[in-house]
Amino acid sequence: MKKTVLFVSAVAMIGLASCNGGKTAENKDAEAAPAAEAAPAEAAVPEYKLMNDLPTVDLSTFPKDKDGWITLFDGKTLNGWRGYDRKDVPAAWVVDDNAIHIKGSGQGEAGAKDGGDLVFAHKFKNYELEFEWKVDKGANSGVLYMIQEVEGQPSFISAPEYQVLDNENHPDAKLGVDGNRQSASLYDMIPAKPQSAKPYGQWNKGKILCYNGTIAHYLNDDKTPVVEYHLWTPAWKELLDKSKFSKDKWPLAYELLLNCGGENKEGFIGLQDHGDNVWYRNIRIKIFE
Fold this sequence. Notes:
CATH architecture of the largest domain: Sandwich
Shape: globular
CATH superfamily of the largest domain: Exo-inulinase, domain 1
CATH class of the largest domain: Mainly Beta
Number of domains: 2
CATH topology of the largest domain: Jelly Rolls
Number of strands: 13
Strand content: 25-35%
Structural class: alpha+beta
């Protein structure tokens, strides 16, 4: 009788342990195995505010020639231009000898007391932009396009940049990869080839073609693009992933540049204040309907 009771009790205890999640050899092995490593968290995109209430201009009031070229700079005034993220023109930007001149502060990018980037106050989508530029010794600047004005952020956080540089004397020319920070390059992404920028103190010709996401940079007398790429494509994402604007290095820039031009695929054109003396003239644009 006692043996039977003990046997029944043992069976009952085994069943109870099983119902209550008793530890089997299999369970023990699972517990002993190290937990799978958690996937690294993606960098969060910080909140940002677009400055959509700043003044714009009516492009129809600007001179247009018989071939459709619209003059954006008349050689005398800064009519149509204003500071990035502001309503007025920063004092560091002046008209000098029929050219727009950023007076170098010697304090690096946007270091002047009343400086910062300059934008033409109209958003453009499909166009051909022509301009001439000249740099002082060791000077750095750039022409930016598809700019979205983001409160408290630099213009290049949302805009591709046509690099303007003294290749011989500015250290940025030797940084980056394969010369992708030299003149006319897509800054930090695609080098301009062939590289035909003239020395400091001499005028260069620049051109940017923008049509449904196809972008081309031209320099001086080159008839073919020195840079060509396509926005909003896997190849564009790959360029960003390999640049200083990658998601892990600069999440906000990555988000804005990946979706360059915002919902309407358009943006402002701007001239960069990098703390150096640089001049721009003969700025005109042809709109593709």
